[in-house]
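A reminder before we start the practical. When you read a complex entry, don't treat the lines as separate problems. The point of joint prediction is that each chain is placed relative to the others, so the output describes one connected object in space. Small molecules and nucleic acid strands, if listed, are placed in the same frame. In the example below there are two entries. Take a minute to note the order of the lines before looking further.
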Amino acid sequence: GAVVSQHPSWVICKSGTSVKIECRSLDFQATTMFWYRQFPKQSLMLMATSNEGSKATYEQGVEKDKFLINHASLTLSTLTVTSAHPEDSSFYICSAPFASASSYNEQFFGPGTRLTVL
Amino acid sequence: KQEVTQIPAALSVPEGENLVLNCSFTDSAIYNLQWFRQDPGKGLTSLLLIQSSQREQTSGRLNASLDKSSGRSTLYIAASQPGDSATYLCALNTGGFKTIFGAGTRLFVKA
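Here is the predicted structure of the whole assembly.
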């Protein structure tokens, strides 16, 4: 199956700093990627859709100036949490759809990045 | 608006039991449905994907069914093992690649 990686796997930062999280499709190209966040013991909530070569589409209630998304190539999307605060501490997961011979548009997920803001 | 509900929220069973996890959704216009496993603090592992035109998929001890008309999917786990302990998430793709997740069922299999 297709592989999606994320870097870093975890990060601890001070309040007010910015943190960049990378999402890569390792063996396929992804014109679209998705970013989710997950609070403890809760499900994944879609934050935004990352589109290669164009602006990201944000879900209602997600601040686009707070969570900057760049999809500069067909294999890389980045999420930058700007001026991070403790309430931004969460588990961030990206995904990319991949069409194989047997399953069309199956979503493959990265391993996630745990962000802790002190 | 599509809503996904998973029941039960948590489940504890002795090793060896067969069990069923339930997922219901409000809008039958889905593209496909995936079942994922998530271990604590980890990412998602795809278990099974059922296309809209399919009724079920099987992989090893896992069997997932889909009934769009009733808005339900079930994940059947045969002969459960302690290693099956995890959170199981049901996710719907409603087209346009957007995926909507249920809240998950936390499974604990006792040795």
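Discuss with your neighbour: The mean pLDDT of chain B is 93. What might explain this?
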